[in-house]
Amino acid sequence: MVNIKLKNINKNFGEVAAAKSVNLFIEDGEFFTLLGPSGCGKTTIMRMIAGLEYPDEGTILFDGKDVTKEPSFKRNTGMVFQNYALWPHMSVEENVAYGLKIRKFNEAEIKKRVTEALEQVKLTGMGKRFPTQLSGGQQQRVALARVLVINPSVLLLDEPLSNLDAKLRVEMREEIKELQKRLGITTVYVTHDQEEALIISDRIAVQNKGEIKQIGTPLEIYDHPKDVFIATFIGKGTLLQGSISEKNKVNVDNYYLSYTNNLELKEGDKVNVLIRPESFVLNKPSEESNRLEGIIESITFVGQYTELKIVIGNFSIIVNTSPKTILNKNEKIVGYVPYGNTILLPYEELV
Ligand SMILES: Nc1ncnc2c1ncn2[C@@H]1O[C@H](COP(=O)(O)OP(=O)(O)OP(=O)(O)O)[C@@H](O)[C@H]1O
Ligand SMILES: [Mg+2]
């Protein structure tokens, strides 16, 4: 297995900067996700790691060895494409065996490895079928087996679940995560689905317009987003504008909220304040918290939780409560947001 380093990578397609000064270090055995909106350059980075695309500038290292100019077949990466790209005229077995055949493995070894790979993705007994005789989820597994069979040192998965229905997506993401941990294979995963990224990854790089905006564990990125783009792209929440008043307080429309935060701020500085829906709680928590009092403007039952819109002075916040709590529209409500969940972000104009 290997670790991967990308140093100052730039890649342009005509006018489009698909990768701008990208620096990444992916640990050996890590499940690393590239997350960002459509067109931000995720696939481009993945293809450069695979050697299917070359950077205009910068260096790519595998275990410290410069592979920037090495062609794909020398890198021992295995990539699963979004559309699976299975060969329709070949059976499942033949699809999976293909990579071994072109690498000139003998028949016995091929048979052994194909059987193993199909077992790994829970397709034992389906080897004789053709891709058209499989469900989307099963085709997805064949695509995965076809890559695993060559024992790649890096697994590259480009939106592998996007063609599956919601329930199967949840099932498959658990399976992929479990398989990845069991094999201990360095994995780069591409998705634009923030929930999937939070659940499946060891670490996430959030990308926008060719640039990496933040790298961290799912929890770090959720709890400490670096800016408004990341805060709104990942998770939900209410964004408010305020300014720093006295020490460690932010004035939001004359409500003075305390926060814990390491932004360098001085009195008078404008900031944005993020409050996640689950941060507002009805029972006073043990940690220090801001008390907020408002009027319930709307109540929406969402299933696992109930979403409330609460008007507080001239602003409103969206919060989640338990569906078991009996609440009424236009009722007064009091809740608490811990200082640690009163998240300050560098000021920018909110649209
Ligand atoms: N071969 C190419 N020729 C010209 N432009 C390209 C090429 N490949 C990618 N681009 C452009 O580079 C940008 C990044 O593309 P990329 O496919 O990496 O995005 P992505 O984040 O994977 O998007 P999606 O989520 O839609 O798959 C886009 O603006 C795209 O149009
Ligand atoms: Mg893509």
How would you explain this protein's 3D organization?
- It contains eight helices and 19 strands.
- The protein folds into two domains: 4-229, Rossmann fold; 236-346, Beta Barrel (OB fold (Dihydrolipoamide Acetyltransferase, E2P)).
- The strands form four sheets. It has a six-stranded mixed beta sheet with strand order 6-7-8-3-9-10, sandwiched between helices. A five-stranded antiparallel beta sheet has the order 13-12-11-14-19, with no helix packed on it.
- Helix 3 packs across helix 4 (136-148).
- 24% of the residues lie in helices and 34% in strands.
- It has 351 residues and is of the alpha+beta class.
- The protein is elongated.
- It binds adenosine-5'-triphosphate (ATP) and magnesium ion (MG).
- Adenosine-5'-triphosphate is lined by residues 13, 16, 18, 36, 38-44, 192.
What's the topology here?
Blueprint (H helix, E strand, L loop, with lengths): L3 E10 L2 E11 L4 E5 L6 H9 L6 E6 L2 E2 L10 E4 L11 H11 L4 H14 L15 H13 L5 E5 L7 H18 L2 E6 L2 H7 L2 E6 L2 E6 L1 H6 L4 H6 L4 E7 L4 E4 L2 E4 L11 E6 L13 E13 L4 E7 L2 E7 L10 E7 L4 E4 L5
Helix pairs in contact: 2-3, 2-4, 3-4
Adenosine-5'-triphosphate (ATP) binds next to strand 2 and helix 1.
